[in-house]
């Protein structure tokens, strides 16, 4: 089951991301770098939404990336970080001091934020493994 954030908005790595997603779905990617997320998250418009991601197998060089995908569109990069907390115009990423978990924070969500959200680990050589979370507004 693919998780979804119900609330919705190119990334140059879209082709690579889709290749990875195909490998994941085929089971051909090593499972040494797993992430786990809740399957879905319901929220009300105007709320700040927190999407947790656990990644206990993270290595020292792995970056934590978040993407979102709207129906019939390519995945869109939201934010990434290595060790410290990061904020941009779309979201904030908080990373635990041991790096085994992180949280994507979407401020004041609207219906346009409804999408599938992917938490992915990526090392400098682009080796990645990820999973998804769906958020729904009610």
TrEMBL record:
Cellular location(s): Cell membrane
Pfam family, one: V-set
Domain Ig-like: 12-119
Main location class: membrane
Gene3D superfamilies registered for this protein in UniProt: Immunoglobulins (2.60.40.10)
Alphabetical GO biological process terms: immune system process
PROSITE patterns found in the cross-reference section: IG_LIKE (PS50835)
Keyword set, alphabetical order: Cell membrane, Disulfide bond, Glycoprotein, Immunity, Membrane, Signal
GO terms for cellular component: plasma membrane
The protein's name: Ig-like domain-containing protein
Native species: Sus scrofa
Lineage: Eukaryota, Metazoa, Chordata, Craniata, Vertebrata
């Amino acid at each position: 089951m693919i998780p979804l954030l119900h609330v919705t908005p190119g990334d140059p790595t879209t082709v690579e991301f889709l290749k990875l997603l195909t490998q994941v779905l085929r089971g051909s990617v090593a499972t040494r770098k797993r992430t786990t997320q809740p399957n879905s998250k319901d929220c009300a418009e105007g709320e700040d939404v927190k999407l947790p991601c656990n990644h206990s197998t993270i290595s020292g060089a792995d970056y934590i990336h978040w993407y979102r995908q709207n129906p019939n569109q390519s995945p869109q990069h939201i934010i990434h970080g290595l060790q410290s907390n990061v904020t941009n115009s779309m979201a904030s990423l908080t990373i635990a001091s041991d790096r085994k978990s992180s949280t994507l924070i979407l401020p004041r969500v609207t219906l346009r934020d409804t999408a599938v959200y992917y938490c992915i680990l990526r090392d400098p050589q682009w080796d990645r493994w990820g999973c998804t979370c769906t958020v729904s507004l009610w």
